[in-house]
Design brief:
Layout (H helix, E strand, L loop, with lengths): L3 H4 L2 E5 L3 H10 L3 E5 L5 H4 L10 H10 L8 E5 L5 H14 L6 E6 L7
Parallel strand pairs: 1-4, 2-3, 3-4
C-alpha cells in the first residue's frame, strides 16, 4: 500500500497518533495542521476575516489558502468529520494539485480497542 505522502494530494485514511502523523508529514516536507475538532479548522488554518462560518465559505477557504506559506500541507483530522466535510476536503485537495499549496486531508483511523 502506498503511503499517504506518496499518493499525492487528496483525502487519505491513516493510523497513528496525530503527533506521529504530523512528524511524518514534516519529515516529508509537508506542513501539518492538526485539527482536533473540525469546528476548529478555521482557527487552526488561520482563516481570514472574511470566512463566513458555513460550508460554502469552508470550501472557498480550503480552495484558496493563499494566506499560508507555499508548499504542501496536511490537515490532520483527529476526529472523523462527517461525509459532507470529507467531500469538501476531497474537492479542495483535487483543486490544489496544480497549485502552490497541495492539500492532504488525513483522517486518523480510531485505534482498535483491546478486547
Amino acid at each position: 500500500m502506498t503511503p499517504w505522502y506518496e499518493a499525492g494530494p487528496g483525502v487519505h485514511r491513516t493510523d497513528g497518533s496525530s503527533a506521529d502523523v504530523a512528524a511524518d508529514a514534516r519529515a516529508h516536507g509537508i506542513t501539518p495542521y492538526v485539527v482536533e475538532d473540525i469546528d476548529e479548522i478555521d482557527a487552526v488554518l488561520r482563516f481570514p476575516d472574511w470566512y463566513g462560518h458555513n460550508l460554502d465559505a469552508l470550501a472557498d477557504c480550503l480552495r484558496d489558502l493563499s494566506w499560508l506559506p507555499e508548499g504542501p500541507l496536511a490537515v490532520i483530522c483527529v476526529r472523523p468529520p462527517d461525509r459532507v466535510i470529507v467531500e469538501i476536503l476531497a474537492e479542495a485537495a483535487e483543486f490544489s494539485r496544480s497549485g502552490a499549496r497541495p492539500l492532504y486531508a488525513l483522517l486518523l483511523d480510531p485505534p482498535t480497542l483491546p478486547r
